[in-house]
Every structure is written in structure tokens, then in C-alpha cells.
Design a protein that fits this description.
With 445 residues, the protein is of the alpha/beta class. The protein has 3 domains: 1-49, no CATH class; 53-186, 3-Layer(aba) Sandwich (Rossmann fold); 206-367, 3-Layer(aba) Sandwich (Rossmann fold). 48% of the residues lie in helices and 15% in strands. It contains 18 helices and 12 strands. It has helices at 3-13, 18-30, 32-37, 39-43, 46-50, 99-115, 136-150, 169-183, 203-220, 238-249, 273-283, 292-295, 326-334, 350-359, 366-369, 371-386, 392-414, 423-442; strands at residues 55-64, 70-81, 87-93, 122-127, 159-162, 230-233, 253-259, 262-265, 300-303, 314-316, 339-341, 362-364. The chain has a 7-stranded mixed beta sheet, sandwiched between helices. The chain has a 5-stranded mixed beta sheet with strand order 1-2-4-3-5. The radius of gyration is 21 Å and the shape is globular. 51% of the residues are buried. The structure holds NADPH dihydro-nicotinamide-adenine-dinucleotide phosphate and (2Z)-2-iminopentanedioic acid (2IT). NADPH dihydro-nicotinamide-adenine-dinucleotide phosphate binds next to α10 and β7.
């Protein structure tokens, strides 16, 4: 495999999509040996086929704001790969959304979903719509308008969207409502649905819970546990919230959260009513985390800074791509961090990742450690298909077992000669083999 040529061609074909190139490069760099040892992949031109999305749908969304002004946004659905199951992945509403960012997410999702061992292909969608400061009615009109187009391309056996940044239970409700009306079906096409209309218990918590379970599995390999550890978390959204709940349940102390405005350091630990407060903070629809310090005055706010300068044992980046750079990684390593587990998708830059791997700390890429969210989406689909609901305990136990299995797969394919587990390599190789072999089985289509 000529990595340089592949990347040069990809860049030429996909100008202005740096995140997509970043995600592809990371995967290809780690699977070079597998490609060399298994000529079938080159014989079937798998690399060129696996980095090209099956289909990209781009469409206009027109909607009326509360003042009667007509607004226009652009929305997408990137159906990346359905070799192992129907397309599956979240929808993101954030001003930073571009075709390139959704392609990176769809590409990552393909391998992540393979790691869950559930039959799910990879997709991602979203819009540059900014939910911040919008009224409930505006959110509803936008979601409804988006669905009048997207409904044509999704379905329970075709493509099953879910939440991501800026898309939670409320937005899924509005999108599902319009889908149901337009198709006259109630077939559970979204996951992350409300509890009393097909949603699964534990789905809201699942990404964060899974992330902490994965960190716990990594720590076990060194005879450690998260109990009693100091944990730094970034973001203050869905994944941060779930991670903080589970870290507390397992006896850790979480001392940070962050927003685009800066980070909050709470030396007393973010637990109990403070975790509930995170939900109020998100629901306030503002772009800031600072108000936490008005509510809990022992906490300090550091404007324009990231939490990675705080001394911690475990770091859980849970906000957005490339939020942790080389300087942050070096700070963490210098301060003795032993484990970094990504709740977000690709939150560490390639340079940061390099620093963690060189320092041989426990470091999990999001496609392994945050797979609990989409795995529980898969469990939601199963419950919908069986037309019954599992208890919270049943769902959580299945989620925990899936995270343990993903960890095992990473160890199997990522263990190096000196015994160090390179989870980046492990996750990429395990995911790649499953998807690539399915593509070969199905022929050139
Ligand atoms: P949310 O919208 O619930 O939360 C995202 C959080 O990150 C918000 O608190 C947001 O603040 C904050 N944020 C955005 N930009 C920055 C920044 N530059 N610095 C610090 N904080 C920032 O989204 P989720 O929690 O669902 O998603 C978070 C990450 O987890 C994303 O990478 C997503 O792809 C990933 N993920 C999500 C899954 C899920 O099931 N929801 C599953 C697997 C991965 P604000 O909104 O104010 O900008
Ligand atoms: O990045 C992700 O895995 C998600 N946003 C969840 C996708 C899903 O289909 O549950």
C-alpha cells in the first residue's frame, strides 16, 4: 500500500476536508501490516473502496423563525458503508458542521459500529444549523423541515439516524414525529427515542457509561481501577454527563467540565445535585459553562482555557474533534495522567495521540471507547423489533459486556511486542477486518 499516494489522491478528490483526511490517515497508518499480510485486500482494491462513502445526500432546509423571517440551512446525510448492516449513525446540529466533518464522522462510525459486533453499517448526518438561542418552536420547525427531505432516504432497514452534538431526545422527537406523519409508519427508524414511544432505558447515559467501562477495562490491565482516581472531563453535554455519572458510581472524583468559553474546576468533585445541574445548563440553550460557578461558588472558572492543565489520573475528552492538542497532551503526561479515554469522536489531534502512545499510557480512541452509545442504539433497535422493553439492568449489563468485548478485540489486535497495547491500532485493525471481509464476500457492487 502506497500511503502517500493514497493520501495525495484523496486530498485532490476531497479539497477542504481536513478532518476527513485526518481520520482516514490514522486508520490507514495502523492497518499497513494487515494489508501486507493479506493480499486479498489489495487484490480487491479494498482501500480505495472503503474510503469512498457509498452516498452523500445534501439538501436545503427552509424554516421560519419566531419573527417570521425565512431561514435557509444546509443539511446532509453521509451513508458511508453498509457492508455489515443498514447505515447507522447520529445527526449533528452545530455551526461547525461541513460535508468534510460529517464524512470523517461517517468513516469513523463504520469501524466503530463493526467493533460493537452488532449488524450496523456506518453513517452520519447533520446541519450547520445552530440550536443555541433558538426557541423550542424554532427547533421544532427546523427539525420538521429537515425531515420533509430526509425521510426519503432513511428507514428501519436502510438507515437509522440518532443523536450527536446538538441533537438529543427533543430533536429526535420532532424528527421522528414528522417521519411518522409522512410515511404513516411507526417503525422506530430513529434511536434515542423517548421512553414511552420506543426508546430504550440507558440510551441517554450509554455513551458516557460505556466510556468509563472501557477506561476501567484498560486500568485493569495494569492492576488499577478508577476508584479513588481524579478525573478531568471536557464538554458539558450528553457524553460528559453520562461519563460523570458512571465515574462517580465507580468511586472516582470528577473535577472539571468545559464549554467553548473555558473550563470549570471544582475541587470538591462534580457529583450528586451538581450532575443534575448539568442538564439545566444544557437545557438553557446557551453556549457557556461559566454559570456553574454561580451555582457552586467553590468552583473556579478559567476563561478561554481547556481542562487538560489540571492534574488528573484519568482524562475523558467528551466535547468535539481536535479539542486536545500536543501541548495539552504534554501537560497531561507531565502531570502523571495514566489513562485517556475518548468520549468524543477524534478529540485528540494526531500530535497529541503520538505523545500518549510514546509515553505508553493507556489511551483509547473514540471509535472503541465511545461505541457504547451506538451499541445501545443497536439494543434499542432489537427491543423495537421484538416489540418489548428490557429493564435498565438488562440493557446496562449488555452494554457493559459489549465494552468488555471491544476492549478484548483491541488487545487482540493492538498488543505490541513489549506488551504495550496500542488501542488505536487494535480498534482500527479489528474494525477494518470485519468490514473489509464483508465487502469481499459481497463482491464488486
Ligand atoms: P452535546 O451537544 O450533548 O454536547 C457537546 C458538548 O461539547 C457541549 O457541552 C458543547 O458545548 C461542548 N463543546 C462544543 N465545542 C466545544 C469546545 N470547543 N470546547 C469545549 N466544549 C465544547 O453532544 P454529545 O455529548 O452528544 O457529543 C459530544 C461528543 O461525543 C461528540 O464528539 C460526539 O460526536 C460524540 N459522541 C456522541 C454520542 C452520543 O450518543 N451522543 C455517541 C458517541 C460519540 P456547546 O453545545 O455549548 O457548544
Ligand atoms: O458518534 C456516535 O456514535 C453517535 N453519535 C451515536 C450514533 C448512534 O446511532 O447511536
Amino acid at each position: 500500500m502506497d500511503l502517500e499516494k493514497i493520501m495525495a489522491d484523496l486530498e485532490k478528490k476531497n479539497p477542504g476536508q481536513p478532518e476527513f483526511l485526518q481520520a482516514v490517515k490514522e486508520v490507514l497508518e495502523t492497518i499497513e501490516d494487515v494489508i501486507k499480510e493479506n493480499p486479498k485486500y489489495e487484490a480487491n482494491n479494498i482501500i480505495e473502496r472503503i474510503i469512498e462513502p457509498d452516498r452523500v445526500i445534501s439538501f436545503k432546509v427552509e424554516w421560519l423563525d419566531d419573527k417570521g423571517k425565512v431561514n435557509v440551512n444546509r443539511a446532509y446525510r453521509v451513508q458511508f458503508n453498509n457492508a455489515i448492516g443498514p447505515y447507522k449513525g447520529g445527526m449533528r446540529f452545530h455551526p461547525s458542521v461541513t460535508l468534510g466533518s460529517l464524512k470523517f464522522l461517517g468513516f469513523e462510525q463504520t469501524f466503530k459500529n463493526a467493533l460493537t459486533t452488532l449488524p450496523m453499517g456506518g453513517a452520519k448526518g447533520g446541519s450547520d444549523f445552530n440550536p443555541k438561542g433558538k426557541s423550542n418552536a424554532e427547533i421544532m420547525r427546523f427539525c420538521h423541515a429537515l425531515m420533509t427531505e430526509l425521510y426519503k432516504y432513511v428507514g428501519p432497514d436502510t438507515d437509522i439516524p440518532a443523536g450527536d452534538i446538538g441533537v438529543g431526545g427533543r430533536e429526535i422527537g420532532y424528527m421522528y414525529g414528522m417521519y411518522k406523519k409522512l410515511t404513516n409508519t411507526h417503525n422506530g427508524v430513529f434511536t434515542g427515542k423517548g421512553r414511552n414511544w420506543g426508546g430504550s432505558l440507558i440510551r441517554p447515559e450509554a455513551t458516557g457509561f460505556g466510556n468509563v467501562y472501557f477506561a476501567e477495562e484498560m486500568l485493569k490491565t495494569r492492576g488499577e481501577s478508577i476508584k479513588g482516581k481524579i478525573v478531568a472531563v471536557s464538554g458539558f453535554g450528553n457524553v460528559s454527563w453520562g461519563s460523570i455519572i458512571k465515574a462517580n458510581q465507580l468511586g472516582a472524583k470528577v473535577v472539571t467540565i468545559s464549554g467553548p468559553d473555558g473550563y470549570v474546576y471544582d475541587p470538591d468533585g462534580i457529583s450528586g445535585e451538581k450532575i443534575d445541574y448539568l442538564l439545566d445548563l444544557r437545557a438553557s440553550n446557551q453556549d457557556i459553562v461559566k454559570p456553574y460557578t454561580y451555582e457552586f461558588p467553590n468552583a473556579q472558572f478559567f476563561e478561554g482555557k481547556r481542562p487538560w492543565e489540571v492534574k488528573c489520573d484519568v482524562a475523558l475528552p467528551c466535547a468535539i474533534q481536535n479539542e486536545l492538542n500536543a501541548e495539552d497532551a504534554q501537560n497531561l503526561v507531565n502531570n502523571g495522567v495514566m489513562c485517556v479515554s475518548e468520549g468524543a469522536n477524534m478529540p485528540c489531534t494526531p500530535e497529541a495521540m503520538e505523545i500518549f502512545l510514546k509515553a505508553k499510557i493507556l489511551y483509547a480512541p473514540g471509535k472503541a471507547s465511545n461505541a457504547g452509545g451506538v451499541a445501545t442504539s443497536g439494543l434499542e433497535q432489537t427491543q423495537n423489533a421484538m416489540k418489548l422493553n428490557w429493564t435498565a439492568e438488562e440493557v446496562e449489563e449488555k452494554l457493559r459486556q459489549i465494552m468488555i468485548n471491544i476492549h478484548e478485540a483491541c488487545v487482540k489486535y493492538g498488543k505490541e511486542e513489549d506488551g504495550y497495547v496500542n488501542y488505536v491500532k487494535g480498534a482500527n485493525v479489528a474494525g477494518f477486518i470485519k468490514v473489509a471481509d464483508a465487502m469481499i464476500d459481497q463482491g464488486v457492487i
